[in-house]
Amino acid sequence: MKIGFASDHRGYQLKKYLIEELEKNYEIEDYGTYSEESVDYPDYAFILGENVVNKNVDFGVAICGSGIGISIACNKVKGIFCAKVSNKEEAYYTRNDNNSNIVAFSEKTNKEEALEIVKTFVETPFSNEERHLRRINK
User: Of 7, 31, 122, 130, which residue is the least packed, with the fewest Cβ within 10 Å?
Assistant: First the structure.
């Protein structure tokens, strides 16, 4: 499984930690940013979104100060279903029920919890239930 990451400058440190932990078990692509120098999160959200849509990675992880801005930007890419989550349970439901392909969260998320969020997100299959498909297709 291949996971793509993107962050702005505020999410850089958490993204760096997650990549270091997850590259032990997953293939990782880092789409930036690569420092804490101020940048605009949409630039990185769009790169991540395009790589998910084009199937260069299986899933995406997006991090900014609040997680909200980068999730909005990711969702501007056609074919992206990005959910801003705050915990492992929400990560589970956004995959199981909504078939989301990018998860976003705040740089203030506890490191260990963020790691569990990502693992839960990428390991949870979409249920493929008719009711969920119907809702997604609307």
Answer: 130
Query: How confident is residue 55, by pLDDT bands cut at 50, 70 and 90?
Result: very high
pLDDT of residue 1: 97
Pairing of strands 82-84, 27-30: unpaired
Region 104-114: what's the mean pLDDT? 98
Q: Confidence class of residue 71 from pLDDT cuts 50, 70 and 90? A: very high
CA angle 67, 71, 76 (to 5 degrees): 160
Q: What is the DSSP string of 46-100?
A: HHHHHHHHTTSSSEEEEEESSSHHHHHHHTTSTT--EEE-SSHHHHHHHHHTT--
Inter-residue contact 64 to 7 (CB < 8 Å):
yes
Across residues 96-102, what is the average pLDDT?
Answer: 98
CA distance 7 to 125: 25
- Please tell me whether residue 29 adopts helix, strand or coil conformation: strand
